[in-house]
Amino acid sequence: MLRLHLRSKSTMSGSSVINYPQEFVNFLNSSPTPYHAVHNIKSHLQSNGFVELKETDPWESHFKKLGKYFVTRNNSSIVAFVVGGKWKPGNPVAIVGAHTDSPVLRIKPISKRTNEGFSQIGVECYGGGIWHSWFDSDLSVAGRVMVQDSKSKNIVSRLVDLKKPLLKIPTLAIHLDRDVNTKFEFNKETQLLPIAGLSIKDKKEETKKSEGCCGDSQPLSEDQFSSLKSIIERHHEDLLELIRKDLELENVTDIEDFELILYDHKPSTLGGIHDEFVFSGRLDNLTSCFTSMHGITEAADTGLSEDEGIRMVAMFDHEEIGSSSAQGADSNFLPNVLERITPLAGSDDVQQTSASSLLQSAAKSFFLSSDVAHAVHPNYSSKHETQHKPQFGAGPVVKINANQRYMTNSPGLVLLKKIADEAEIPLQLFVGANNVPCGSTIGPILASKTGIRTLDIGNPILSMHSIRETGSAKDIELQVKLFKKFFERYSELQHTIEV
């Protein structure tokens, strides 16, 4: 069943405060997939008074000043916003953006494999992962499953997290590959293939299973037609049985289809001599999802009645593969939300203004594109430009690139510096070395789609795109506080910097 993250608090001076590093670890452990992450973000927003909107419904009657709202797409992307008490159409929107996905292995539509007495699962590489880091890890499975509801008979989406070490991608013994420590190469199609069990089983066990322990799994009769092979023909029935039990379904055949992701079964944790590190997968980019989620909820009631703008977070799926999807940053998701809300006055008569209010709002707004940054690696410091080496615990990193792989410019940097000064949050600057390729973010995509001024920022981590990354525990709270101050102060400060 779905495991929700629990709020961890510590007491200081008689008041209850959030233990950000531990709560972040809890969030990571309950968010093995983008679907789980968005579910947990929704739960956090709802517990803080946010109301869900549907893209299929009109929003005019819901939109009110001081209102708190969120909308999802595909259950893997989410936009949440808070309306200031002095909001008017054409006023600014302060946005923090992030992404919910990470490089992973995903189970193929036809995954059933057997070889040399082993049951194996066919997987597909998603994103630019450091795939050798997946070898010899204990892997579990999570995702969403489309099932037939026993009452309504409709097909509904259910979250599943099997929370069990099910799969392993074993390395070849050094005795059979003497060059493994100098050159580790492998075929991603045939050698990045997890084992799931043994395919040679006791006849009594097979007989027992055929008598009904896995529900109604009989083949189709000759007069039935199916456009695709049945779920039992495409996937190992043992895996389907685990899903059936987890979702408490009557029969395996209640499973229509699924999107399942492999993840490291080893829990996320605080580590280091003084618990100064976060050891986990998916730091890229659940870090920014977590900090922006807390930033907007903690700022939601501070100074909101006097705020002239809208405060917003936007978290997208599919950044790791280019963002070109219906729910990616390169989709119409965020532009559609802005187009729907910026003309609304938020008054009782729900009077709307002209569409030009969207253009006015875009010209006044600001987008903090938040994705993790490369911390300087103590064993590979030569990979960094000598004057730009982000350190753990030294604050969020402002990312700059002359070729516009990052969107930071001097007016945006001046604005963020003012906000960081007020919040007393240190900032770091990062420029990649000229001889090392530079990555990119959702920042350039959304800046070009909306015309909104944009700055790229993120917390530093090590081993980016590995199955197990390392971040700084201290930096979590620093980024939450920076985003909180950004939401509270942007509408007023944006008047003071002219371009």
Automatic annotation (TrEMBL):
Gene3D superfamilies per record? Aminopeptidase i, Domain 2, Zn peptidases
Keyword Hydrolase assigned to the entry: answer is: yes
The record ties this protein, via InterPro entries, to: Peptidase_M18, Peptidase_M18_dom2
Q: Which keywords describe this protein according to UniProt?
A: Aminopeptidase, Hydrolase, Metal-binding, Metalloprotease, Protease, Zinc
- Give GO terms: molecular function aspect only: metalloaminopeptidase activity; zinc ion binding
Give the EC number(s) listed in the UniProt record.
3.4.11.21
Query: Protein name, please?
Result: aspartyl aminopeptidase
- The domain of life is Eukaryota
Pfam families assigned: Peptidase_M18 (PF02127)
Cofactor(s) the protein requires to work: Zn(2+)
Q: Which GO terms describe its cellular component?
A: fungal-type vacuole
Does the UniProt entry include the keyword Zinc?
yes
Family to which the UniProt record says this protein belongs: Belongs to the peptidase M18 family.
Read off the CDD domains from this record.
M18_DAP (cd05658)
Among SUPFAM superfamilies, the record links this protein to: Aminopeptidase/glucanase lid domain, Zn-dependent exopeptidases
GO term, biological process aspect, one? proteolysis
Catalytic activity, as annotated: Release of an N-terminal aspartate or glutamate from a peptide, with a preference for aspartate
